[in-house]
Q: What sequence folds into this?
């Protein structure tokens, strides 16, 4: 029986499997954990354990029905239950996120953006309005929004985070470069681009140093 208590590492890998399965051009009816592992250059034991933690439909020597596995992954990850979100900080990054229409595929619907810049407020990006900050709390509470996306400069991040929490936000997707102090029960997911770049740079360094 698949378990709901998967590790953070498994949770981070599941969207990778889902993206691969949905992107297959030939779309085979069945696919095995080993085939997924080989395609993604991953350990087949890890992939098999990850999939077994969320699905019991795999068959020995056959694998999974691809469409069924996609359905189970989407259900486990919550992609079949769209969550509304707000975004605060409509600079270049914020506007890019507002304009990206692919979030809906992953169960995320950004209702609106918020900013303090008078030249940005009351404009539209990607079909979404950018509203003044004094409307944030009312919209979040009225629409029961629980996810806040933070794309403000670091010096403003904590204050905006506090306002999001006051507005009823329970999960913050943090694109700023600062650590946020939040009460117990509030989730912060840090999207640190510097860390990602360091990993890429180190990988290239190791590759070229061996030649």
A:
């Amino acid at each position: 029986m698949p378990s709901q208590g998967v590790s953070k590492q498994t949770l981070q890998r599941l969207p990778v499997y889902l993206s691969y399965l949905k992107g297959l051009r030939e779309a085979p009816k069945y696919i095995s954990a080993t085939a997924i592992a080989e395609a993604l250059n991953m350990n087949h034991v890890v992939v098999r354990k990850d999939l077994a933690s969320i699905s019991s439909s795999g068959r020995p020597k056959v694998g999974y029905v691809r469409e069924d596995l996609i359905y189970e992954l989407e259900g486990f990850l919550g992609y079949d239950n769209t969550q509304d979100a707000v975004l605060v900080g409509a600079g270049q990054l914020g506007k890019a996120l507002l304009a990206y229409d692919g979030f809906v595929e992953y169960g995320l619907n950004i209702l609106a953006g918020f900013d303090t810049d008078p030249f940005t407020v009351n404009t539209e990006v990607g079909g979404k309005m950018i509203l003044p900050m004094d409307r944030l709390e009312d919209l979040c509470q009225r629409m029961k929004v629980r996810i806040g996306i933070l794309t403000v400069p670091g010096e403003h991040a904590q204050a905006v985070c506090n306002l999001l929490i006051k507005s009823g936000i329970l999960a913050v997707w943090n694109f700023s470069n600062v650590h946020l102090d939040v009460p117990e029960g509030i989730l912060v997911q840090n999207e640190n681009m510097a860390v990602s770049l360091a990993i890429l740079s180190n990988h290239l360094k190791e590759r070229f140093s061996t030649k």
